[in-house]
Design goal:
Length: 192
């Protein structure tokens, strides 16, 4: 993202994201929750050997009529401040929070998770456990960023992330609708 590192607090000021890595890009293309501008692929992927997963990404991009540019690795690294791009980067709109909760039986509430790698790891575990909705508070929460998507192994793209003004109020208003199980840092803080 220009000169800024992905996952930087300032990256949220841009109107688009550069998703990087096979799983985040593949998940984004299949979830279709974003608007896609361009797919960048390392030009070595068009020669004799092509990673089958990148081939799947290229096929999906073609079905979406997405512009694909085969570029050298050093140009890929201009869009991604690290070498974890796995030869593929997707320029796309920012991911929006979902604006309605469905009748999910299970979801997770997160309070003030500020580190994008922790947020992504939590989303990855939630997705693995079959939880596809996570509720966060607007204030103090890490933004939905390419770093979160990468760390979540693409789970962010497939999940519903709902944002509320105040988690405590949210829980109080809805506690009659579902069972609330909470935990915290103190040994006696687990409550049912």
């Amino acid at each position: 993202m220009y000169i800024l590192k992905l996952g930087s607090r300032f990256s949220s000021q841009k109107s688009y994201d550069y998703l990087y890595g096979i799983n985040p890009v593949m998940s984004a293309l299949y979830a279709n929750k974003r608007q896609f501008t361009q797919l960048y692929v390392n030009q070595t992927q068009q020669n004799d050997y092509i990673n089958p997963r990148i081939s799947n990404i290229l096929n999906r991009a073609q079905s979406l009529k997405l512009d694909v540019q085969m570029i050298p690795k050093n140009k890929l690294e201009r869009y991604c401040s690290n070498d974890h791009h796995q030869n593929v980067i997707l320029k796309c709109s920012k991911l929006n929070y979902c604006n309605q909760l469905s009748d999910e039986s299970n979801f997770v509430l997160l309070d003030s998770v500020q580190d994008p790698q922790n947020f992504g790891a939590i989303l990855r575990v939630c997705f693995f456990l079959g939880i596809n909705t996570v509720i966060v508070e607007k204030k103090g929460q890490c933004p939905l960023s390419p770093t979160v998507s990468k760390t979540s192994a693409g789970a962010l793209e497939l999940m519903n992330i709902f944002e509320t003004d105040n988690l405590a109020t949210f829980v109080k208003q809805r506690k009659h609708e579902f069972q609330v199980i909470g935990s915290g840092f103190e040994s006696n803080s687990v409550q049912n």
